[in-house]
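can u pls check wat happens w/ MU-OXO-diiron
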Amino acid sequence: MKVNVKNNVSWVGKIDWELRKFHGNEYSTHKGSTYNSYLIMEEKTVLIDTVWKPFAKEYAANLEKEIDLTDIDYVIVNHAEIDHSGALPELMAKIPDAPIYCTKKAVESITGHYHKDWNFNVVKTGDTLDAGNGKKLVFVEMNMLHWPDSMACYLTEDNILFSNDAFGQHYAHKHLFNDLVDKEELFTECIKYYANILTPFSKLVSKKIEEVQSLGIPIDIIATSHGVIWRENPMQIVEKYIQWSNDYQENQITLLYDTMWDGTKRMAEAIAEGIHKADDKVRIKLFNVSKSDKNDVITEVFKSKMILVGSPTINKGISVAVAGILEEIEGLRFRNKKAVGFGSYGWSGESVSKINKRLEDAGFAVINEGLKLTWNPNEEQINQCLEFGKMIA
Ligand code: FEO
């Protein structure tokens, strides 16, 4: 399938309707995804990125219906991760001498994955490539957004920024443009993508946006590598990234817990009730993390000003589900958020102090020693939870 983006620029990617897990099992994709590859046909024929490896043959066959592959003058690899470079071996088997333009780090990543000595041409920020007909591609390194090799490129005259992963989202749709899709679905996937993938790099996101803005270049279209192409008010997603990268939080408190015999669950519900009694404006969300999608939970953590994490004590520790989400949270390096632990226990009761330690290590401001109660809370203990919730609020 080939879809016109603007003038002589087309989308030649793949819509993956069935995808439900990405990055192995690390990222849930409830709405599938797309792997966006772009073809520029000016005096020069330029291919920007490819698709994920399972679709390599289909991709190359579709591309061959549009062009003679030997007509490709330049292959641009904005990012070496397999969802974008996966069809390179299939493609390069047909055009082994075609020059590949990418960052120095991408050469390491690509050869690390495919072990091929292709015709690499290293580019840096500000380097250009002539596409012909008065149009140039300008390269912008995007180090650690989100891999060391990441870069974007910009097509002059058409004013298209090929941003790769940045501003993308895992969202399969037949209409490739942001003005043609369900906005609520779109932004739900955008914030999930930011929260789960870009949070650790927020400072770099802000700096890179400032750097690109300082160039004063007009951007009519942002052509990402996943999900929609932003052509209607493309700067709206840039504005969202500015907000999200700046210690983002909403008026939300989220409780994450696991439970064995409902003691910690009842604590969570009573604490939530206490918060609500003291402040009926704050949005409160509860997740049993052993039953919830971890990436959806992370999105709610991202939106929260405070999180409470609860686990019963199990073998002097915490539940595997709570340990798992805390590992994820620590890696994402959230900033400017408060937190505290809670949990029920039978005899030794280490869970709450362990949770607080993990939250501190993850960079949260832990507000106190938390709340731990024995067995399954009685009426007096439920009142303690309510009071704890009021204090939190
Ligand atoms: Fe869509 Fe970092 O790959």
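Residues 266 and 377 are 7 Å apart (CA to CA).
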